[in-house]
Amino acid sequence: MTALPKTFHVKSFGCQMNVYDGERMAELLGAQGMTLAAASDADLVVLNTCHIREKAADRAYSDVGRLRRDDGSKPLIALAGCVAQAEGEEAKRRSKMIDLVVGPQAYHRLPEMVAAAASGQRPVDTDMPAISKFDALPTRRRSGPSAFLTVAEGCDKFCTYCVVPYTRGAEISRPAGDILAEACALAGSGAREITLLGQNVNAWSDGSTGLDRLIRDIARIEGVERIRYMTSHPTDMTDALIAAHADVPQLMPYLHLPVQAGSDRILKAMNRSHSVDSYLRTIEKVRLARPDIAISGDFIVGFPGESDADFQATLSIIDEVRYAAAYSFKYSPRPGTPAATMPDQIPAEVMDDRLQRLQAKLAEHSLAFNRATVGKATTILIDRKGRLPGQMIGKTPWLQSVFVETDAVIGDMVDVVTTAALPNSLAGVLATAQAA
Ligand code: SAH
Ligand code: SF4
Ligand code: F3S
Description:
- By secondary structure, the protein is α/β, with parallel strands linked by helices.
- It folds into four domains: 7-125, Methylthiotransferase, N-terminal domain (Rossmann fold, 3-Layer(aba) Sandwich), CATH 3.40.50.12160; 139-252, Transcription Regulator spoIIAA, CATH 3.30.750.210; 265-372, Transcription Regulator spoIIAA (2-Layer Sandwich); 377-435, CATH 2.40.50.140.
- The protein has 15 helices and 19 strands.
- A six-stranded parallel β-sheet has the order 2-1-3-4-5-6, sandwiched between helices. The chain has a five-stranded mixed barrel with strand order 15-16-17-19-18.
- Helix 9 packs parallel to helix 10 and helix 13 (308-321) packs parallel to helix 14 (348-372).
- The relative contact order is 0.08.
């Protein structure tokens, strides 16, 4: 039995939706009168975990272990996120230090669970009560210049390598009215850019209209200057959404459209439901609508059965699409997913080699993309401080980070001219400085 916590700390480890959940949990605890503190002295620490790749669970337990303090005491510890969902009751057996376990669809119950944990119980809630968590959460209060907004939850695609359909449940779209209300609250508290989130965000639908309609409605909200969305699935990329890229000025010229692999045989084994050809046709349509669009993607190397020829095909699709940015991973077998027990698992050294070659090629293309923008004028939204004094970092419409010397502050929109390119960033000067 301990006193009710007065201070808390939330640490998020996963995707943007996981980060969003972390923010909502923090707002929820804040609404209970608790205040933020460092992990090292908070009364309650929430570990908001990710389960997407191997050793995620082991890492979560070792993070729990590290919360023990020098004097032998420990905070109340909440295991949240996708590892919590996957482990459930098992988490309490694996670590005596964990006081409560809450899944990504149940965290609206956190305050009562914390109270129960403080009174010595060890509650576990991994229910998936569909949409209700959003109804039970307080109105958004905080916002930096750039905010996340989850519009769709879960995934029904069941790619054979992926845990998300198991940890996040079925695909559900939030009602448009709730999303618009949240977008208004975010804009009211300082957000100039809103990124709509979902595991398959482009599958969002209210039954009759799709994500394009939602984007057009959000574009009408006063103060919202930039709109982004991620992650999109190739098979849900509708013509209406593509058209929005041509005629909604607030919709940024950036599309994250993971392909995962460039060989139809592997895509089929992955249950991706798109082919190389259908993917490339979609990219073509998108580029027709918005010629300057930056395309980014996700790649997995070493999926079971991936031959050299399959891997070569992945390198070819990278050359064809010329990705502006990308995330790439070694295939990681996840318990309970079909791919984990497929024959022909790829040896680690082959995967290492392929990943290295893949990343070298991706870096070439992102550098080329960034180089092509050098010398051009653009507007960045300042989102953080740089390491050097007077240096700030902001994002271009194409989501490139630009380092610039300025006395502008976080949240300002600044006109710059870019002067040099690296694979992951650009240097720039203020447009006014250049003109002078
Ligand atoms: N819904 C999105 C993102 C899912 S998770 C999509 O469909 O693309 C983010 C990325 O993690 C995936 O795109 C995939 O590239 C990678 N990933 C998922 N499961 C993986 C696994 N078992 N091993 C390696 N990478 C994986
Ligand atoms: Fe995972 Fe596939 Fe769903 Fe993306 S679409 S979350 S990769 S199952
Ligand atoms: Fe990880 Fe869960 Fe996101 S597994 S990638 S935190 S949906």
